[in-house]
Amino acid sequence: MLKLIPAITLFLLHFSGPVFPQSDAYLPNDKEQQSVAQYIEKIDMSRMRDFPLHEAPGPESAGMNIAAMARLKLIEMPDYQIFYDGVSKIVNLVSKEQLALFMTPPTGPTRIQEDRQRKYNFGKLIYQHFNDDFDFLMVATQEPSNNNYHFEVKPHATGTGAGWGVDHSAQMGSDGELNSFIFLGGTDKFRDGPGSHEVMHAWAHSNKWESTYFFHAGYTNFGGILGGWKPNSLKSLGNDRYQIDTHKYNSTAMGGSVAANGWAKPFIPYSNFELYLAGLIGPSEIGHDLKRAVNFVWVNQNNGIFSASEIQTTTIEEYIAEFGERIPNHIDSPKNFKALYVVLSDEPITSEQWKIANDDVLWFQLPEDDGDSRRYNFWESTKGKATMSFRPIDYIRDQSVNDEGSASDWPALYNGITPKLELGIPFNNIGFFDVNDSTIYSCIRLYTNGYPAEHGGISEFGIALKIVSLPDSTIQIIKSREFNKSGAFNENAESPDCSGKFETNTGVYIDLIQTDNGVLDTTWSLIDPIELIFKLDTYKYFEKFPM
């Protein structure tokens, strides 16, 4: 049956989106814009229409692909850039100054105040471009660092005994939604680092337990990500000696650890006491008193035996009497948290670096069992009682990005996709068919009689095309704009090329277009200058992708 279909129609079958019949007229509206259409003789601009596009759905089970990378949007300021898109869970803030400040902690007698001021300034920078609609602001440096910490912006609750109870919202530029600032020294710190640990610091622990570093479990029976032996395992051996069950980082370890300052990787979930402090279970569900070993010393770590001068016991009722009831309680407390994750770098991160960071965040926010018994994402850590989502596109301020239109007008700051280097394509940016909205996005350069031309000072236009008719092999320009007006770069920090060429005196349009099946070298003829309809003349594979 396929053999009966003309080859020219087979090409359009690669574009498996909905067909728009030629009789489906595009009515004029109030969003008419200067475009390539104005340059083509006899074209009626009232027939142009801004066709509403939709952001691609997030790749919940896969990492970033090259198409997503090509759709990066840019906020450009004199001292920094912010890259983001409609599908990723991260944004990339490019600032040599900000990176240097975070990588070199202040010293001297005013170091605490100076360090806080750096966070405040960073928060104010973020809130220039993002709405105050997330609970956690997380910053991860592309350059590895040994620093990882949690800073309390505003207490999540009362009655936990944790934190200092000071509200820094105004200083951070927040109107009160932000609770926590988390710094991570790398972009892989959720699955293979202390990201889960730092999140729990939003609620735990009190300095009552006298850990070496503030806000950890110390030598207690909490048995969670912030440290402690397994609850309900303490046995007295007499003569100030005790035996406990401990967590082991791996099955081959001879002995476990109390991890008085917490665990650096999420190989165990949050403990019941930690879940209580986070507002996810009630006090009656903790299941044990709170015990602390004073002057803890290992006697035989392999067998879990230690000595202590005293075992202090605090009932949960006594803890509540000391710090108050948790407000909000486990019934009223939030269970679905929102976060903004910022990768901080001194130059735009590569597509591979973007994928690594994005995949790490995707894993952490996954609201289900990931199948790995030695790693716990946030949902698993909370035993299915809470989620954390990362959707920066939801927080971006409603603003025009470099006068190129809002994020909802186009799927990217400029049209096109970066082809694979090994293809030897003479352009670093070509057109592509977006399966998410069944639209071809590309760019055309204006030529007249073989010479570069322009209209109104513009020589390159980004265009969006829809299929009009499969049998007739026709497509239609539904909207256009100046190509890459903001001067954005691609993922390789290069200025993107414009692969398409339109000859105004003949109406011939040639372009390279990537589909799921390969890159196609195409030639089209303008057959209807009123409706901006092109008919496919010829095509050939530049490369056919393996099926």
Structure description:
- There is one protein chain.
- The chain is elongated and about 100 Å long.
- The strands form four sheets. Strands 15, 16, 17, 18, 19, 20, 21, 22 and 23 form a nine-stranded mixed sheet that branches. Strands 1, 2, 3, 4, 5, 6, 13 and 14 form an eight-stranded mixed sheet that branches. The protein has a four-stranded antiparallel sheet with strand order 7-8-11-10, with no helix packed on it.
- It folds into two domains: 2-55 and 406-544, no CATH class; 90-206 and 261-292 and 314-390, no CATH class.
- The relative contact order is 0.16.
- 15% of the residues lie in helices and 25% in strands.
- By secondary structure, the chain is an alpha+beta fold.
The rounded Rg comes to 29 Å
- Count every helix, treating DSSP H or I runs of 4 or more residues as helices: 11
User: SS-based structural class?
Assistant: alpha+beta
Describe the largest sheet.
9 strands, mixed
In terms of per-residue confidence, which ranges show pLDDT below 50 for 5 or more consecutive residues?
Answer: 1-11, 14-70, 399-408
Shape: elongated
Number of strands: 23
Distance between the termini: 20 Å
> Share of helix among residues?
10-25%
Q: What is the total domain count?
A: 2
Mean pLDDT: 84
- Please report which band the strand proportion falls in: under 5%, 5-15%, 15-25%, 25-35%, 35-45% or over 45%: 15-25%
